[in-house]
Here is the input.
Amino acid sequence: MSDPGIIRAPSIARGSDAAGGTPNGEAAAAATNVATRDGANVAPSFGATMRRLATIALWTIRVTGPLLVTLGILFWTGRALTLLPLHMSLGLIFVIALILLGAIAARVRSHRMQAALAVALALTIPIVGIAQTRLFPGSWHWVVRVVHLLIGIGGMIVAARLARAIHGSARKRGTVCG
Here is the structure.
């Protein structure tokens, strides 16, 4: 007799589990489930996984976004130009996180237009960023810089709204995320 307070994870033994009752395939399937205090196995919900991914993507955007703006302002003032590769790498991470949020929102059918906008912004940001040295050279170059900045800030705003919508739609369906 086992103590009900102990969480027992299923064992994956060759041919059968440690209790000797289930074949190997069932033991492997049970290993992907989460053991609860009463011994029952519960599969993690798809919605909880989507919410976790959305949270990670949002926090990635919350961290990289302000860093990118700060680096951009330093570049405008002629400082820290050696950090341009860092700016581009962080920008790639930002864009991937924004695309991920857009894909999750489209998958959970939450604000599909904003999801499409997020993906469009994510694709536009690097195009404008890379091409900005060749666009409007001379005294009008500041216009391209401002456009690049506004698209990035727009991406941050859309990301926050999408994450809120993803988390809200999961709560409406009763999905629990720990």
Notes: The radius of gyration is 23 Å. Residues 143 and 165 are 33 Å apart (CA to CA). Confidence is low (pLDDT under 50) at residues 5-18, 27-31.
